[in-house]
Design goal:
55% of the residues lie in helices and 8% in strands. The protein is of the alpha+beta class. The structure holds glutathione.
Length: 229
């Protein structure tokens, strides 16, 4: 199996949150895969075979699966043995909704918080591409975003409140053991860790305890990410 994912200058530092979801889903099933690192400017050409303009793409023999949600469903359906990635059909529906729910309130402000740090870890060609494509999305320059990230971080932290309340009385988002919603949520923190030196959680956040548990999973798959200084 091959998983196409996104890297910056360092080919050993994959950072796409969506690719992280797929990697954690593969690890959940104990499936081995070869990681294929791509830079932003390599994605469209390399992945034209999959008719995809984004990572992740999973290739499993004859099967070519673009998009992290479709990859998660494929992994569960093609490899049903072992712990269900979603906890059954109702869990799958809930996981699908969870992915959308994280978008505007969490992914967007976190992107604004990290955007200038992401820019720094890219090579020159990717930096040009990133500036051209991302500045219109954030409505300011990368440099302005670097100076004014604080409001976005506060929005992100405020929007974590319901998740923090939930984790005060639950081990994982999926109950007693981690599953796909945990991997989606965790992917935000791996994205931040792989791109930025910023601490994105408040000191007393109940998410920290959950994060420690997630870091211990799969021989430290996410926990061993080298920190950016
Ligand atoms: N819906 C897609 C979104 C994936 C996505 O946005 N990937 C980004 C990297 S995090 C990407 O490949 N962007 C390519 C580009 O901007 O050209 C999924 O969940 O797989």
């Amino acid at each position: 199996m091959k998983l196409y994912e996104l890297v910056g200058r360092d080919p050993n530092m994959p950072f796409s949150p969506f690719a992280w979801r797929s990697k954690l889903a593969l690890a959940h099933k104990g499936l081995k895969f070869e990681s294929v690192p791509l830079r932003f400017t390599e994605i469209a050409d390399t992945l034209s075979f999959a008719d995809s303009k984004t990572v992740p793409v999973l290739v499993d023999g004859e099967n070519i699966i673009p998009d992290s949600w479709h990859i998660a469903c494929y992994i569960q359906d093609a490899y049903p043995d072992g712990a269900d990635l979603f906890g059954g059909p109702r869990g799958r529906a809930a996981a699908h909704l969870f992915g959308f729910q994280m978008g505007m309130p969490l992914l967007m402000p976190l992107f604004r918080t990290l955007v200038s740090d992401i820019y720094k870890i890219l090579d020159e060609r990717d930096q040009d591409f990133f500036r051209k494509t991302r500045e219109p999305r954030i409505g300011c320059t990368i440099e302005d975003a670097a100076e004014n990230y604080h409001d976005a971080l506060v929005t992100f932290q405020n929007n974590l409140i319901p998740y923090e309340a939930y984790l005060k009385s639950s081990e994982y988002f999926c109950g007693d053991s981690p599953a796909y919603q945990d991997y989606c949520f965790y992917s935000l923190f791996l994205w931040a860790r792989a791109t930025s030196p910023k601490s994105i959680l408040k000191e007393d956040s109940p998410i920290k305890k959950w994060l420690d548990k997630m870091d211990g999973l799969f021989d430290g798959l996410g926990g061993n990410i080298k920190l950016i200084k």
